[in-house]
Design brief:
The complex is a heterodimer. By secondary structure, chain A is an alpha/beta fold. Helices cover 36% and strands 24% of the residues of chain A. In chain A, a hairpin with a 2-residue loop joins strand 4 and strand 5 (70-71). Classes of the chains: A alpha/beta, B mainly alpha.
Chain lengths: 272, 258
């Protein structure tokens, strides 16, 4: 990871505190252009927060995040909005606008930003919908879509403005095996065909390992492991191996920290 | 302990008030841009204003009818039942029209606004919009806010007009007050600037306050189902209290002869 020009996203000493809780404690990340990079870690490690930091929705307590050479936390609102036009983000719920049809949802960013004539917007929308295989669903309302379809529509919307990167927030969570397969294929294919840079936040080890070029494993505010999926599976860290294999007990204990079991059972203390 | 809690409650209150004011400023900055997005505004005037019509029309008619009945029974003791028109019209135009219409508006449109915006927040639609470089305050909040401010005086006027009709139905139609006296006394006693315009000013103020509370509560809601339901309740409670309190202040300023 020497060539800095090759990195689309660079975080240095990134620290974020939420109340008294330290979500990130000085982490460094390099996300290479044109690659699929995954951020993995147990639930509650702030993976989604990381995407929000990269997207500039929240500001870090300390440290820098450069996206395409611009330091996101220091950008003015206007510059940030300009940068966001080149970023796509796929929310976990899809975040489709519920009062618009599938077609209008995909057309939304084009109508807001491109100023293109309506006929051209129509062609572009149909192309994006075709790419995710949902051209036939263009007249449906978001409420009529299944979870997987909603995510594909959101994906079509995310690529509507031909962004340089897409951030996927837990794209595989709660999907049936077929939708999961479709999404895995779409993410990989779009990355190749459109020359995107993809960031996937996920804890689905198998799917993510299948498409990621590079993986960062986060835990308790630190980067605990990084490397290609292969390297991580054979990592020297016992913790990382436990995570990648999904064994129930190991360095991450099965039990939430608690006092002595016998003592608590026998104690006469009132339950409060 | 008590003082600590009192302090933190006061601080939280003022923090929220500050956020609400910053928010209002951002919304107001988004309002001029609506000139280019008239369709958004018209859509919202429909869902905020037109859809509130039924309750306003029905309530106006019945409030007017009750006023006619009660006013008649009191006035007839003094042989002053010819002044019924004046009484009905003045109480509606000055007080009941703006206030009751605003209370109904808070319950019908305000709660709907809060719930809609709160749910958009809970389902990440607002965050998604922000990530698409679209400012949700300009795209979602400003049209709704302005539609509410625009609709409120119109709804209050419709309420008052129907109330007068209700008073007429009850007084003239049911109890036999002289029709000519009912209208002519009303015409000579209700002043355009003094009474009607002051009522309109009141309803504009109420429109701003109720819609402001509604959109702010929605935007500031905790993005869970419980948070949205709490925010909706708060909208109705705060908006109603604000309307009643402001009405007293405005009445004192407008009609108080100090």
């Amino acid at each position: 990871m020497a060539n800095t020009k090759n990195n689309l996203v660079e975080a240095r000493g990134l620290t974020f505190q939420f109340g008294s809780r330290t979500v990130f404690d000085g982490i460094d990340l390099d996300l290479q252009r044109g690659k699929v990079t995954a951020i993995m870690g147990p639930s509650g490690t702030g993976k989604t927060t990381l995407l929000r930091l990269i997207g500039g929705q929240i500001r870090p307590t300390a440290g820098t995040i450069h996206v395409d050479g611009q330091n996101v936390p220091a950008l003015s609102r206007r510059a940030l909005f300009e940068l966001r036009k080149r970023m796509g983000m796929l929310f976990q719920s899809g975040a489709l606008l519920t009062d618009l049809t599938v077609f209008d949802n995909v057309a939304f960013p084009l109508r807001e930003h491109s100023g293109l004539p309506e006929t051209m917007v129509r062609d572009l929308v149909l192309m994006k919908l075709e790419a995710v295989g949902l051209r036939g669903a263009q007249r449906l309302m978001p409420g009529e879509l299944s979870g997987g379809m909603a995510r594909r529509v959101a994906l079509a919307r995310a690529i509507a403005l031909d962004p340089m990167m897409i951030m996927y927030d837990e794209p595989f969570t709660g999907q049936d095996p077929i939708s999961m397969g479709v999404l895995v294929k779409l993410i990989r294919d779009l990355n190749e065909v459109l020359g995107l840079t993809s960031i996937i936040v996920s804890h689905d080890v198998a799917e993510t390992s299948a498409i990621a070029d590079y993986i960062y494993v986060l835990s308790q505010g630190k980067v605990v492991g990084q490397g290609t999926p292969d390297e991580l599976h054979h990592s020297e860290s016992e913790w990382v191996r436990q995570f990648m294999k999904g064994t129930p007990d190991g360095p991450v204990p099965f039990h939430y920290p608690a006092g002595d079991y016998t003592e608590e059972l026998l104690s006469r203390e009132e339950f409060r | 302990m008590l003082f600590q809690q009192l302090g933190s409650c006061t601080l939280a209150f003022f923090q929220r008030l500050g956020r609400a004011n910053i928010f209002l400023w951002a919304v107001l900055c988004g309002v001029p841009g609506l000139i280019f997005r008239l369709r958004l505004l018209i859509h919202q005037v429909f869902s905020v204003g037109v859809l509130s019509l039924v309750i306003i029309v029905v309530a106006g008619l019945f409030v007017g009818m009750v006023l006619g009945l009660q006013g008649y029974y009191t006035l007839v003791d003094f042989g002053a039942e010819d002044s019924l028109g004046v009484m009905v019209a003045l109480s509606l135009v000055r007080e009941l029209g703006p206030v009751v219409a605003a209370l109904l508006f808070a319950g019908r449109a305000g709660s709907a606004l809060t719930a809609e915006i709160g749910l958009m927040k809970a389902t990440e639609q607002l965050a998604g919009m922000e990530m698409m470089a679209v400012d949700p305050i300009k795209r979602i909040i400003a049209p709704r806010f302005f539609a509410g401010v625009l609709s409120m005086p119109l709804l209050a006027a419709i309420f008052s007009a129907l109330g007068v009709m209700g008073g007429y139905l009850a007084g003239v139609g049911l109890l036999g007050v002289d029709e000519g006296a009912f209208w002519s006394q009303m015409r000579s006693s209700v002043d355009f600037n003094e009474d009607i315009m002051n009522g309109v000013i009141k309803s504009i103020v109420f429109g701003v306050v109720v819609t402001w509370i509604a959109v702010f509560e929605g935007y500031d809601a905790v993005p869970t189902s419980e948070g949205v339901s709490r925010a909706t309740t708060r909208t109705v409670v705060y908006a109603s209290l604000a309307v009643l309190g402001l009405d007293f202040i405005l009445t004192t300023l407008m009609f108080g002869e100090v």
